[in-house]
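Structure tokens please, single chain.
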Amino acid sequence: MSAADEPFHAAILARPADDGPRLVYADYLDEAGDPARADLVRVQVALARLPQDHPRRPELADRQADLLRRHAARWAEPLADLVAGVEFRRGVPEAVSVDAGVFVARGDELFRRTRAGGRSFVRRVRLLDPARAVADLARCPHLAHVAELDLSHGDLGNGGVNVLARSPHLAGLRSLDLGSNGLDDAGVRVIARSPAFPNLRSLALNDNGLTADGVRAVADSPFLAGLIDLDLSGNDVSDAGVRAVAGGRATARVRSLRLAGNHVGDAGVAALVATGLLTRLLAHDPHLDLRDNAVGPAGAEVLARSPELARAAGLDLSGNYLGDRGATALADSGRLGGVRVVRLARNQLTDAAAFALAAALPDSPRVRVVDVSGNRLTARGVFALRDVARGKGFALDATGNGVAASVPVAAADLFAGYPAILAGLRRRIDFPARRD
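Here you go.
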């Protein structure tokens, strides 16, 4: 960092949540002859403000990618001999990837080079090959400067986590990523029983081998009571695991829970709804992602009856077992008025579900994407949805239904499904859905 930049950097670090100092820095960069870096600051600040499904995001994301492709190496050059990668957040280098051995040997230098006003920009450190140096890492005092520690894909196993959890330098950690580390319930119990993480707010345990027993250990931990973000995706978590999170003392404040790719079924959905956990999740992020689980018609009906479904801007139930009964319950719920994205791929749906959706989607003025791919629709179901998509202007994915996009269909066949659609519309007129 240049001496001229340091006052601006210090102002950013003094008020890290405030966009103001960053935008002032962007103005300075324009005047200093680095308009590309100024553009990155403004683009990333704007992206951080926008919801994931905002229509401006694709344009801004493309602009960000182009700026980083052309200039990231130059901007990261001052750290090139220390790190394997740098990630810019809201315009400044807040995250780095570094070999674990290099971090042990030169971590002090990393933080010194990125310091302004007595603080370092670097908040998140991803350590590469941590298993090779885990004993040295546990003793490494540089860990005390890390707020977010990423050890994902680190091959630590239960033994490595056991060593790490004895470190006296992790009290400042706010986020810990242990995804894809070959852990099972025994390794997770080590984390749950360790007093090394008193300030942890985010814990990623995705893509390991956890069951409900491991989840229960986390949920009941006396040392993890600050958790608000828990990633359990890609494990073997069942309904009992969801109940553990919903009723756990350490997870009583969780507002972000990722469960995709598990074995959560109807009882798990019921636990989300009955305990108020779903309310917290949707209040924090209105996108409900339960894809690739074991939710059946009864679980979909529980969701459909919940007033909280009206909060959802995104609903991803792909790769479950909803069938026509579950999909129709959601369509007929009257609670999809705010939804932008509906994904029901690979749910054994037939034309009956397509007709129910076609009848309901006109009542969803914000819908932008509907995915019914990989089901069992015929041309009649696809055409019914396609007509609504054209009228409403949303993107429809109906691939993988054994129906080519341009399959000709007889007029009699095409209109055969419309009585069901009209009946659904008539039901909405005669018996309007209750709006809680």
